[in-house]
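We both want to read discrete structure tokens more fluently, so let's practise on a single case. Once you have written the record down, we can walk along the chain together.
***
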Amino acid sequence: MMPLIDSHCHFDFDAFDTDREQVLAHCQQLGLSHIIVPGVTRARWPSLLQLCDQYPMLQPALGLHPMFMQEHEEDDLSALEQAINTHQPLAVGEIGLDFFVPGHDKKAQTALFRAQIQLAEQFQLPVILHVRKAHDEVLKVLRQTKLTGGIVHAFNGSMQQAEFYMQQGFVFGVGGALTYPRAQKLQRLFTDLPLSSIVLETDAPDMPLAGHQGERNSPEMIPQVLEKLSELRHETAAEIAAATSDNCRRLLKLN
């Protein structure tokens, strides 16, 4: 059975409340060894951590997501520092900049992002990045840090931007968006990127695959993402599964 890791799945979200155990059992049958669960708000960290304690396959990251700015409070950063110290997550995430969100506040987002990057440096942890319409701004921040790398989740930037990220020790998450016929630019990008810089993800319950629009996405779809990547790159599914899982293990120091 091929080793598989979903490097980005919001398995703590309510969408999985009715059948979480069944989904996990099926994931094990499909060969998944780990599912990385990034935090998005302080209010959700306790349930996320409890789930990761309950199910060894689930591994936590903790962060304050830029799409939830209205929910973040002033003392969340000190709470994040304390939570990292206490619970020792694999990464700081999901963090970043989202300038696609209507009415976004660049200044507030950037201040929160910089503060969380400093925490990642302090604890020598990788980061899981969410970036929309802001790759150049994120790279500007990263060049001023001494991070241990991380994952650029759902990367859809340019090859030039990818090269800058790789210089900083980052790998790129790819998921359901790759399966859409119209995603030709993204398909070319993930055909050309070195395999050593790619990890698989679903972003479940969001970002459903082609043919599944309107449905709940699930980590059970990782084999289909793998199949599409194999088709594009003309490399075997086994080669890609082994390499992407090794990339994830190395970066996140997974057992």
Remarks:
- Residues 205 and 217 are 4 Å apart (CA to CA).
- The chain has a mean pLDDT of 97.
